[in-house]
Amino acid sequence: MDHAGTQHGNGTGFAHPVREAAIEAQGLGKRYRRGWALRDVSFRLPAGRVCGLVGPNGAGKSTLMGLATHMIRPTTGALRVFGAAPGSTDAVLRTSFLTQEKPLFRRFTVAETLRLGREFNPRWDQEVAEGIVRAGQVPMHAKVGTLSGGQRTRVAFALAFGKRPDLLILDEPMADLDPLVRRELMTTLTAEAAQHGTTVLVSSHMLAELEYICDYLLVIANGGLRLAGEVDELRAAHALLDVPGTGPSPALPPHRVIESRRGEGRPGVLVRLDGPMGYGGPAAEPPTLEELLLGYLRAPDAPPLIAPSARVGDIHDIITGDRKAVTA
Ligand SMILES: Nc1ncnc2c1ncn2[C@@H]1O[C@H](COP(=O)(O)OP(=O)(O)OP(=O)(O)O)[C@@H](O)[C@H]1O
């Protein structure tokens, strides 16, 4: 497993993530009284990626994010954020978490809210935070309680970015934004992430939008990980075959049929490739990210595919990695 790549000396006193894992989970599980919300989840999210977290309602996305931010404790397994336990000072200082609820003090003005951000965060970047607020013409002297839902979202984004996190976790944060503002904030998100090497984990049901921003992917269904890896790696492992997709799923050995596509979009059969397509077979094209995601959302029992970039070793490797990070 690759634990290399942590570089120091970015002027902040913090390790600058280059190739290390931003998040690493091994055998991670969370059980509530009603049953398992997340079970035996193992993956590695390399630093610097913008990762989409996708799954049907109730799949376990918020639970995974809660585990990564120490809001929820695991029942089994472990998770590390840049090699540190969630909840440790290092992990907390390096992580921003934005949920749909966006708890802000309603009686504070926008300026006071940003001031609070500055006081609590040693890496605070006032220019970035103010820039995000001003781009939406949100008055700095307005009380948060008087803002529209979308304007409050913008202020919450400003707080999250102003913290200058190494890991930004966004739990469906843009649901209440109009399409133009969504696009604008997403452009800000990708530009900021690219400029500062920020790792982003963003959950969303907007598949087309994820295609626009993500280069990494985690798909969860029924509490289990179904897909993990680079978008390019995952797309290359599948093909959309030009065969009629209206009848029962055809057998296409050795490839595994994920879905016979019907209705909207390109028709055909989505397969997970097991070896090259033979000559004389049906025409094959890589699926788009949206086609891939829809296929797995419609086939939640498909066996998991964890691409090489997302694989972890055993729990011992994670703990050894922690020790190396501490002694480095
Ligand atoms: N505090 C809790 N107590 C009991 N069960 C819970 C609790 N929180 C979540 N669950 C259950 O765990 C499962 C996963 O929930 P989670 O919120 O992680 O799903 P999600 O993928 O984020 O869903 P959505 O897309 O609807 O936001 C669900 O079945 C949910 O009912």
Automatic annotation (TrEMBL):
Alphabetical list of InterPro entries matching this protein: AAA+_ATPase, ABC_transporter-like_ATP-bd, ABC_transporter-like_CS, ABC_Transporter_VariousFunc, P-loop_NTPase
Keyword Acetylation: no
GO MF annotations, alphabetized: ATP binding
CDD domains (alphabetical): ABC_DR_subfamily_A
Keyword Ion transport on entry: no
Gene3D superfamilies: P-loop containing nucleotide triphosphate hydrolases
Keywords: ATP-binding, Nucleotide-binding, Transport
Domain ABC transporter: 23-247
PANTHER family, per the entry: ABC TRANSPORTER ATP-BINDING PROTEIN ALBC-RELATED
Name of the protein in its database record: ABC transporter ATP-binding protein
